[in-house]
Amino acid sequence: LGLGPLGTVARDGARVRGQPADPRALTHRHRLSVALLALLWALGPPAATAAAPTYATRGQCAGHPRVDLQTPAGWCVGLVATAAQGLQMPRRLLEVAPHRFWIVDMGSWEPRRGRLLELRTDTQPPSLRTLANGLDRPHGLARGPDGQVYVGEAGTVWRTPVADAVRRENVITGLPADGAHPLKELAFGPGGALYINVGSATDACRNDQQQQPLPCPETGGPRPRAAVYRAVLGGPNHTLQSLQPHATGLRNSLGLAVVRGASGAERLWQAENSVDYPDAQAPAEELNELVAGSQHG
Question: How far is Cα 63 from Cα 121, in angstroms, rounded to an integer?
């Protein structure tokens, strides 16, 4: 993640504050088994490379082949699963029980090629099975305060209890699934609110003639794109009560995380997949904190 300059590009009840990418701020809450870090390193290779060796390994890491990478003291990276086990375009991983992890795999950028997978690490070798297929470019994966698992497809957010078989229930439908950035990232915040990425339809709001109208039409109206939305779920069945923009001017929030600070307050962080850039040495990406209660243009 390349950090860009301090950004104040959000409005509609939230501001954006740049944050340093300090891994110490995250590991105290988000530590996983060192072996599970392996899967994060295995997310990139497409299925076509399954026949070729993917990573150089040396020794063991928590019972898995150790990837030959330099890591901080006390850490190692073990290779748990790759394309050889059936991974194609995995996006998010969620621990649902000890040694049991759910993964959303897009399959490709074509619609309806995605899957929800289950990885078991209490078998040797680890096993991978399909829980649901035919998903539309799934990306987001989060556990809600109701204990269910929420999946973000391109145009829909749905949930299912943690069980041997998926019992799908649509929560939010009709989200924009077209354009350059259809993927939906998810994160639950204070009070059980669900935050959802609705990416921009374009790279930088340019038309076919490379004209850039100001203000950008897709950032206006009651349902702007390039935004993070806040969904309130409630009632006896934990159904959708409201869906409103929480922060706008955010091109594509492919990383959302709620982090508990030293004071105990929960803070919403956003990784900005920013405008395509011509200089690889000057990436435009940012790591921001979305802070409610003020407006900035």
Answer: 10
Confirm if 71 and 59 have CB atoms less than 8 A apart: no
Degrees, nearest 5: CA angle 98-104-106: 160
Backbone angles phi, psi at 222, to 5 degrees: -70, -20
One-letter amino acid of 54: T
Other C-beta atoms lying within 10 Å of the C-beta of residue 44: 13
Strands 286-292 and 266-272: antiparallel
Element (H, E) at 24: helix 24-30
SS3 216: coil
Give the mean pLDDT of the chain: 83
Separation of alpha carbons 120 and 101, rounded Å: 6
Instruction: Encode pLDDT of 93-137 as tens digits.
Output: 999 999 999 999 999 999 999 999 999 999 988 999 999 999 999
Residue 217: strand, helix, or coil: helix
Element (H, E) at 38: helix 37-41
DSSP state of 245: E
pTM of the full predicted structure? 0.83
Structure tokens at 251: 């091109």
